[in-house]
Specification:
single chain
């Protein structure tokens, strides 16, 4: 796995166990990557992924933005205060990759919308949602 250190920047703590219906003996806290770190790591590994995985990563980014869209200000704060400072030599590349991947409808986006069988996504909607969401989080987002 490339850039695993990004997934450890400001992880979120989540409690799992029997009190929430998980088949464990006792509750425990686990750390999960925050959404900004997850998205940035997906962007950075995108070029090295095989074809089908690229589309899957586009869908992961879209779905993460959709799921946490009401918290874009918090995701931007994580980028500015936590994630970007942890990767000063690589942060500029994140903007370039995001612009290249979501600056227009791409083949990866077209493939990504075909993955979920239970939703009607269009390439244009995925493109716009990701461009907007990443623009808010990674502000300023070079166009």
């Amino acid at each position: 796995m490339r850039y695993p250190d990004l997934l450890l920047v400001s992880p979120w703590r989540v409690q799992v166990g029997p009190t929430i219906g998980m088949p464990l003996v006792a509750d425990l806290q686990v750390r999960v990557p925050n959404p900004t770190s997850f998205i940035v790591q997906r962007l950075l590994i995108h070029a090295d992924r095989p074809g089908g995985k690229k589309a899957q990563d586009v869908l992961y980014i879209h779905d993460t933005l959709e799921l946490f869209g009401a918290s874009l200000a918090e995701l931007q704060r994580l980028w500015v205060d936590e994630v970007r400072p942890a990767m000063p030599a690589t942060a500029r590349r994140v903007h370039t990759i995001a612009r290249d991947l979501f600056g227009a409808v791409t083949d990866a986006i077209r493939e990504a919308v075909r993955i979920p069988q239970d939703r009607r996504l269009t390439p244009e909607n995925v493109h716009r949602a990701c461009e907007y969401g990443l623009g808010e989080i990674l502000s300023p987002f070079p166009r």
